[in-house]
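ingest -> validate -> predict -> emit
validate: passed (alphabet ok, no gaps, 211 aa)
predict: started
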Amino acid sequence: MTAQPQVSPTPWSLSGTYLEACNCDAICPCRRIDGSGGGRSTYGECTGSLSWRIERGMIGDLDVGGLCVVMVIWYSDDQPRSPWNWVLHLDERAVENQRRALEDVYTGRLGGTALEQFPWAFKPSNLLEVVSSRIEIDHTPGGGWFRAGRAVTVRVRESFQHPGAVSCVIPGHHQAGREVVAELLEADDQHFRFSFTGRCGYEAAFAYAGP
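emit:
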C-alpha cells in the first residue's frame, strides 16, 4: 500500500477534458444522480481506465498544457476501504521534469484537489507502475475514444439517456457531466488483462488546483 502523500507547497493548476470507462453497468453506481449517491460496484469490483486531456496546466513554473494522462485501475468493494491498484500512463511527449511533476499531481503529493477528488490518492492504494506511453485522445462528446500504447483502449458508443444530473467525484460533484456507454474497454499488459463491451463511461470537463 502507498503511504498517504506528503503534501508539497508547489502551486499547480490543470484544466481540460476527462473520459473514463469501467466494467459497471450504466449508470455507474459510484456516480451521484441529482445529488444522491449510489452503492457497490455492479459486479462487486471495478476495473477500468481514466483519461485526461490537459488543455491548460502549470505545475510550479512548468507548462504541461497539451499533455495527456491515462490510468488503468482495479479495486474490490469487499476489501477494507477498497484500495485501488493502478498504473499511471504519462504522455511520452513530456520531458523528464514534466513527467515527474505530473506524477506528483496524480499521486497526490502536491495536495490540493487531488486529495479531495482522487480516490487512489486519499485512500490506501497500490501504484503498480508509472509508464511513459504514446497516448492518443479524442474527447468528442458522446463519441470519444482514447488509448495508451497497446496497454489500454476505450471507445464510446453513445450517450446514455437519463433525465437526471449525473456527477462523478474525479472531475468533481460540483458539476454535472454525461454518462456514456463504452463500445470497447480493453486492457492488456503485465498488470491488467480484460475486455468489455457495452459497459458504463463518463465524460466531463475538469479543473484541479493546489495546494
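The first strand starts at residue 12 and ends at 22.
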